[in-house]
Design brief:
The protein contains 10 helices and 11 strands. The chain is an alpha/beta fold and 280 residues long. It has a 6-stranded parallel sheet, sandwiched between helices. A 3-stranded parallel sheet has the order 3-2-4, with helices on both faces.
């Protein structure tokens, strides 16, 4: 059995963290990140806790604002406007998911693009990778991971499963610069054929253990971005054990892309700071 490279996001995060911490120490000002949470979702509690812990590591002021599912859109929009004009707030994000009675993207679009630390507003998405300083945190985390393990793709066949604004679409825009990229969703008819030909597979479909070795090419690089919580455990979209010893490299869940998504959020925050700083 061949040895598969397990791309450890915690290891990469811990390697990059001192550099990012030093960037914050050089600012001479404490930056402030505000995370808005709506409703009661167990997965959000986990994600917000990770963000708070990273803020403490970096000396960032962290504020969580929680709304109930019964709060009105007007109330939430008023708070977002208040944060937009608050000079002590440097970054704003809305934790996903939100209750179905709200439109996540509609709320996100009310965030000042200059404080859009998640890079999800329509304005920031329109200028992705052109003249803007940041990309969505999960995408940046993937790039950090691939660079660290020296498997960044160039002139490769790539399949991305999932067309979200958060990951799939911006990732495809970036990778198309130097690769042949196919972005798939549930309506794509020949997904399995495409997977068998792909040198790289990026998957974020919310189906635990879905991707198996008989669906991939041997020596493929697989990046699992899927996150499903069941019985207090986090699962990815890949059958990790089944793919070990077959693919060239793979990310575990948990411990793969996730830790770098959180770090990348704070890299974005420093990049937004008055447009003065750039982390990497």
């Amino acid at each position: 059995m061949k040895e598969t490279i397990v791309m450890d996001g915690k290891k990469v995060r811990d390697t990059l963290l001192p550099e990012l911490r030093e960037k914050y120490n050089q600012l001479g000002e404490t930056l402030k990140l505000v995370v808005i949470q709506i409703g009661n979702f167990k997965e959000n509690e986990l994600y917000v806790r990770q963000k708070r812990r990273m803020a403490e590591e970096l000396g960032v002021s962290f504020l969580e604002i929680t709304f109930s599912s019964s709060d009105t859109k007007k109330t939430i929009l008023e708070k977002i406007h208040e944060l937009n004009i608050d000079p002590t707030v440097h970054g704003i994000m809305i934790q996903s998911p939100v209750p179905t009675s709200f439109s996540f993207l509609e709320l996100v679009d009310q965030i000042d693009p200059k404080k859009d630390v998640d890079c999800l507003t329509t304005k920031n998405q329109e200028v992705l990778f052109k003249d803007f300083k940041i990309v969505p945190a999960t995408v940046q985390g993937i790039l950090f991971l691939l660079d660290f393990y020296r498997v960044a793709p160039k002139n490769k066949k790539i399949v991305i499963l999932g067309k979200s604004r958060l990951v799939g679409t911006p990732l495809s825009i970036l990778l198309k610069k130097t690769n042949e990229v196919v972005l798939c969703d549930s309506k794509t008819e020949n997904t399995l054929e495409l997977l068998k030909e792909a040198d790289y597979i990026f998957i974020a479909i919310g189906k635990p253990g879905w991707l198996k070795r008989n669906m991939t090419k041997e020596e493929a690089v697989v990046v699992d971005i899927g996150t499903t919580i069941s019985d207090h455990q986090l699962f990815g979209d890949c059958d990790f054990k089944n793919l070990l010893g077959y693919v060239h490299a793979i990310t575990p869940v948990p411990g793969g892309v996730g830790p770098l998504t959180v770090l990348s959020l704070y890299a974005n925050l420093i990049n937004l700071y008055h447009g003065k700083q750039k982390f990497r």
